[in-house]
Amino acid sequence: MNLLSGHIIEFNIDGGSNRLKFLVDNGIQVYIRYNNYGEYTYVIQFSLEKFDQIRYDNFDDTWVVPTRPHHCHLRHNKDVVDSPFVGEPETDIPILSDIILKFINI
Fold it and tell me: Per the structure, how many domains does the chain have?
């Protein structure tokens, strides 16, 4: 059972930008966005400091990783690594929830 829902203190859906945003109780903001072109972005933002976020997406197909075009922009730098995501909410959201829970429970 995923316990992330017990940590969500604010939730917002912006239909104009197809973006879901929620805030968890330790201050982490999470953004989930899909578009009509099969592209997605999952952002875990820790603070407003530059690069203090982890971003998973498939928007730019230029990164050489085994999971291309799916990739992860690492926190505090511009390096990119492979991603566990495939752009399907049914598959991705449970994985994303587990990742977020790890940062909540640090």
Answer: 1
Q: Which domain holds residue 91?
A: 4-104
The structure tokens listed for 77 are: 């730098």
Return the number of other C-beta atoms located less than 10 Å from residue 40's C-beta. 21
40-45 sheet: strands from edge to edge? 8-14, 19-24, 29-34, 40-45, 53-57, 71-73, 80-82
- CA 38 to CA 48: how far, in whole Å? 28
Per-residue pLDDT of the chain (106 residues; tens, 9 = 90+): 467 888 999 999 988 888 999 999 999 999 999 998 999 999 999 999 999 999 999 998 888 999 999 999 999 988 899 999 999 999 999 999 999 999 987 6
